[in-house]
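Journal club prep — side note

Before the paper discussion, L.F. wants everyone to see what a predicted structure for a comparable chain looks like in token form. Sequence:
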Amino acid sequence: MRGATSGAGVTTCRPARWCSAVPRCWAPRNSACSRAGASCARQPRLSVLTTGDELVEPGSELGPGQIRDANAHSVPALARSAGAMVAAVRHTGDDPEATREAIRESLAADVAVVCGGVSVGEHDHVRPAFAALDVEEVFWGLALRPGRPTWFGTTADGTLAFGLPGNPVSAVVTFILLARPALLAMAGAEPGRHRSTAVLDAPYLKR
């Protein structure tokens, strides 16, 4: 492509999803069109914290009442697909002080995602920990199934904090609906462009 073949106002390359795509997409076209550079957003840093005494790593023997820590793998994968750099993946048990300290470390990133512990049970310590760390609650609870107890807040310095349900399906659904659009926007993309619509082939009966 040469600049002479493109008129003023013609789009030569659409916005990339994250900055690592810029050299492959924009640089050659910009050079051909006599553009010295392109603006881009910084890749957002994200931390993931899973909570719960019942969680064990895949490959470990399951004891009574234990389940695999699926969120420690699915959520980072979803974050990377949205252009984030996963800075840390941590796990903490159902202890108030340990939960608070683990969240404190997670808040060093641009986006902190905590899976589990956001409801009102005896072992749900995430919301009190956020409050103790001066994370301002924006909302708690959605008219959404799965995903009703989802929590979201922000810190004074702009860190986004997502408290997602611990159920693996709920965590994936709420991450895609809430955290993914935020990451895409932070990376300079248009979140709405990555939505799709589907039509059911058969009736769905709500239980």
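L.F.'s comment for the group: Residues 168-186 form the longest helix (19 residues). Keep this in mind when we get to the figures.
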